[in-house]
Specification:
This protein has about 240 residues and is α/β, with parallel strands linked by helices. The protein is built from 8 helices and 5 strands. The chain has a 5-stranded parallel sheet, sandwiched between helices. The protein is globular and about 55 Å long.
Length: about 240
């Protein structure tokens, strides 16, 4: 069995990847098992993967999560920056666990998408009824705090994996529907590439990022000041 983790942050496409992976008959991918608030969405052995177990024995909890998919060829879960540190540290150090790192280069897109999801409570749209796009205020200080955190988080993950000699596969949000990237994910996990590695999901927000804000002019001016005018849109 190949063990793996999907490393990312909210609103970078991780739910899409988990959904795609779980459509494969040889893969089990849990959701965010190390979320500090709760154990989110275990796909199997829910009675075993409890928050109490995780707090008492984080390494044993991780091993139980992998053991829950013994019938599969690849088993994993996702971790975010800010998740339970003992689990993050363990999985990053453990070389037999393969690492998928998912990023969204346009940080204004990830930032605004997260703000909208927090406001609406909708983190994954599967039908038109789930689509809500209220305008949110742009706060320069808040965004710069987010941008700094995101850049340092991914830089730290890459540095740690490289210094420890671990191979990892980086997945990009803007290539989620690219067939070659999808194939590389399955190959990296050492399972057969399916004929149709797709997953149904709806894009929740407008690709014109400035339209997501109640004060688009402030957002536009800030992008100019940091040399990121291209972040005003996302395909």
């Amino acid at each position: 069995m190949q063990k793996f983790v999907l490393i990312g942050m909210p609103r970078v496409g991780s739910n899409f990847v988990v959904g795609m992976l779980n459509r494969h008959p040889d893969i089990l991918c849990h959701y965010e098992l190390a979320n500090p608030s709760s154990v989110i969405g275990p796909m199997a052995a829910a009675s075993v993967l409890t928050q109490e177990f995780r707090e008492r024995d984080p390494v044993g909890f991780v091993q139980a999560a992998f053991d829950s998919g013994r019938a599969k060829k690849a088993v994993g879960f996702k971790i975010f920056g800010g998740d339970v540190s003992a689990i993050c540290q363990y999985v990053l150090d453990e070389q037999e666990i393969r690492k998928l790192v998912i990023t969204r280069p346009n940080l204004l897109a990830a930032f605004s998408s997260q703000k909208i999801a927090l406001k609406t409570g909708v983190w994954g749209a599967r039908s038109k009824d789930d689509l809500h796009s209220p305008k949110i205020p742009f706060d320069r200080v808040e965004f710069e705090h987010y941008r700094s955190y995101a850049e340092h988080f991914f830089e730290g993950v890459r540095k740690k994996l490289l210094l420890s000699g671990q191979n990892y596969l980086e997945i990009f949000y803007d290539r989620l529907h690219d067939s070659e990237q999808k194939k590389s994910i399955f190959s990296f996990l050492k399972v057969d590439v399916p004929k149709d590695p797709s997953f149904d999901s709806l894009k929740q927000n407008t690709p014109n990022l400035l339209e997501r804000f109640s004060n688009p002019g402030d957002a536009a001016r800030h992008l100019v000041s940091i040399g990121r005018e291209s972040w005003s849109k996302e395909t």
